[in-house]
Design a protein that fits this description.
The protein has five helices and no strands. It is mostly helical and 136 residues long. The protein has one domain. It comes from Burkholderia contaminans. Keywords: Membrane, Transmembrane, Transmembrane helix, Transport.
């Protein structure tokens, strides 16, 4: 997760330096780094989430993770679209600079959190808990 977040942050960070006259070919490297980094980060994130819950709760954990990813993606597209939308090329580039700075900050925060969170921090508590039913 750490490496993926840092690679994606590098891709977003390199977009910070484009302007309205940047050739399309110059976007190739950032547009390869971003999905490559996310391709490493997202499966690792899924593994971390599923490893942190008891096996019988894996479906719920997966559903919560995917709902959060989808909702976050939709809100991100809407917010970043509002920043970059309207106006000409200069406004789009100005909005893109803000968006890349926010993206880099969030990815670096995620990378730092990935180094601080222990994979088994919650496993013991959830797997030793007993369910009390009416039959007990």
């Amino acid at each position: 997760m750490l490496a993926g977040a840092l690679v994606a942050a590098l891709g977003y960070g390199s977009l910070h330096f484009i302007d309205a006259s940047t050739p399309v070919a110059a976007l190739l490297v950032p547009f390869l780094l971003i999905p490559t980094g996310m391709g490493f980060a997202v499966p690792a994130m899924t593994t971390a989430v599923l490893a942190s819950v008891a096996p019988e709760r894996a479906g719920i954990a997966s559903a919560v993770l995917n709902t959060a990813r989808q909702a976050g993606g939709a809100m991100g597209v809407a917010a970043f679209g509002a920043l970059a939308g309207g106006g000409g090329a200069a406004q789009v580039v100005d909005g893109l600079r803000i968006e890349t700075a926010v993206s880099v900050a969030l990815l670096i925060t995620a990378a730092l959190l990935a180094t601080r969170v222990r994979p088994d921090a919650h496993r013991g508590a959830s797997s030793t808990r007993q369910v009390v039913t009416a039959a007990d």
